[in-house]
Amino acid sequence: MRFLEPERETLETFLPGLDDRLAALPLKERERPQGPALTLFKEAGGPGLVVPSEHRGLGASAVQAVRLQRAVASRSPSLAVATTMHHFSVAGLIQAYEATKGLEWMLLEAVADQKLLMASGFAEGRSGQSILASSITATQDGDDIVLNGAKKPCSLSASMDLLTASVTLDTGNGPQLAVALVSASTPGISVHPFWGTAALAGAESDEVRLEDVRVPADMVVRTELGEDGSLDTIQNVGFIWFELMMAASYLGMASALAERVLARDRADVAERARILVELEAAMGAIVGVAAALDGDGPVGQAELLQSLVVRFSVQDTIDRVVPRCLESLGGMSYVSSDETSYLAACAAALKFHPPSRAWSSQALCTAFAGGPLVLG
């Protein structure tokens, strides 16, 4: 078995030809804003990856999805980050349909049939605030819900067909968390420059503003927190998908560096083996938690806790492995091309996704002491 072979075989099974087409492009071309990577992803049928087959999708399991995502990230970090937001939004839509048996099935079929991309307007967590706190407000006006606010950064901002957004709904009895599903062509939605770094620029992570955006009330799914502050099933599943897909994506970026180390056969063999062992162990942990999403049992706080443990473990693995990859590749590799420094900069960004380690530390310790896992 070659390094990354299981992941690339999974990618080829579900999205035939995409890996070869990405590999044939220079890295800068894959990573530039409005570049060809997202178009190639759509042409290959990527938007329907995790949509169940009964809703005309490809029906990939969570285990298959995280494997595929690592493979995509090893070719195009920006594409992996952007499509993680899509896949996790689709997974949330599936969970909402399972809970309500509402009209979500129509959107799922549209995503698969029309190859629509879903952007995620969920809170990224601002310093000192809950990751559940939304900057988008929602108020009832007749049969519609009116949305106001902004999401920045918002991946897929330039290419989105649909937007899923966490909102704070004014119910008259106090605020309630909810998820709104909005067509990107709805009047009042606009996109503005925000992303200021070259790293991951192809993910199109700019600002999306909503000004008096009207959506039908049945396109707003209300969610609940438990009395102890714990998340409901829809939120649990969404968070788990997000953490696992992000972990797999950033591990794929680090794996792209390790692949270069392995191909050059320059570093000490024991050091190469240590790098590979760390990366494969991290992937095994991701797959282990993803398997719980594919099971028949309920998904709750235990699985969410495991996903957070894996995410922070992967983050630590990347922080250890990437500098060793750079050292193994040597200074000439670093100065003769910006590819290694680019991949290193991209892989380091996992730590900027929610929840932060500082915010999560107390929640993790409380959960392992037998208390509820409260992220809000």
UniProtKB/TrEMBL annotation:
<dbReference type="InterPro" id="IPR009100">
    <property type="entry name" value="AcylCoA_DH/oxidase_NM_dom_sf"/>
</dbReference>
<protein>
    <recommendedName>
        <fullName>Acyl-CoA oxidase/dehydrogenase middle domain-containing protein</fullName>
    </recommendedName>
</protein>
<dbReference type="GO" id="GO:0050660">
    <property type="term" value="F:flavin adenine dinucleotide binding"/>
</dbReference>
<dbReference type="Pfam" id="PF02770">
    <property type="entry name" value="Acyl-CoA_dh_M"/>
</dbReference>
<dbReference type="InterPro" id="IPR046373">
    <property type="entry name" value="Acyl-CoA_Oxase/DH_mid-dom_sf"/>
</dbReference>
<dbReference type="GO" id="GO:0003995">
    <property type="term" value="F:acyl-CoA dehydrogenase activity"/>
</dbReference>
<keyword id="KW-0560">Oxidoreductase</keyword>
<keyword id="KW-0274">FAD</keyword>
<feature type="domain" description="Acyl-CoA oxidase/dehydrogenase middle">
    <location>
        <begin position="123"/>
        <end position="213"/>
    </location>
</feature>
<dbReference type="InterPro" id="IPR006091">
    <property type="entry name" value="Acyl-CoA_Oxase/DH_mid-dom"/>
</dbReference>
<dbReference type="InterPro" id="IPR037069">
    <property type="entry name" value="AcylCoA_DH/ox_N_sf"/>
</dbReference>
<keyword id="KW-0285">Flavoprotein</keyword>
